[in-house]
Amino acid sequence: MTSDAVTRRFTIINARGLHARAATKLVQLAGRYDCEISLSGPDGQSANAKSVMGVLLLCGSMGTQIEVHATGDQAAEAVSAIGELIASRFGEPE
Could you give the C-alpha distances from 70 to 6, 36, 63, in angstroms and in order? Predict the structure, then answer.
């Protein structure tokens, strides 16, 4: 069992940013992984990636850079999956 830590920065590219639906998708995805995941916005505010309210409070609009930090056995997989979700615009057309 390892406790790796992984941190990566991603840019929100969907037109509506981290609105309720996108935040819910991110939280549901984060909940699938056995690790602690936090998100940090450009102002230094951080949130638990497994909390919809926390993610929404980051106010991540289009173009905002979000840092994803995870620790635990599935940290690398979780950060990679969150990056893919962000890159896919949370499944939105724009």
Answer: 5, 5, 22
Tell me which of 13, 16, 17, 19 is the catalytic residue: 19
**Model pTM?**
0.93
Q: Residues with Cβ < 8 Å from 44, sequence gap 6 or more?
A: none
21 alpha-carbon distance from chain centroid? 13
Pick the CATH number of 5-91 from 3.30.1340.10, 3.30.365.10, 3.40.50.300, 3.40.630.30: 3.30.1340.10
Residue identified by tokens 């979780």 is 78
Residue 94 clears pLDDT 90, i.e. is over it: no
And the tokens for 88? 């896919």
Does the annotation mark 69 as catalytic?
no
Q: Where are the domains of the chain?
A: 5-91
Reported as a single tens digit per residue, the pLDDT across 57-88 is 999 999 999 999 999 999 999 999 999 999 99
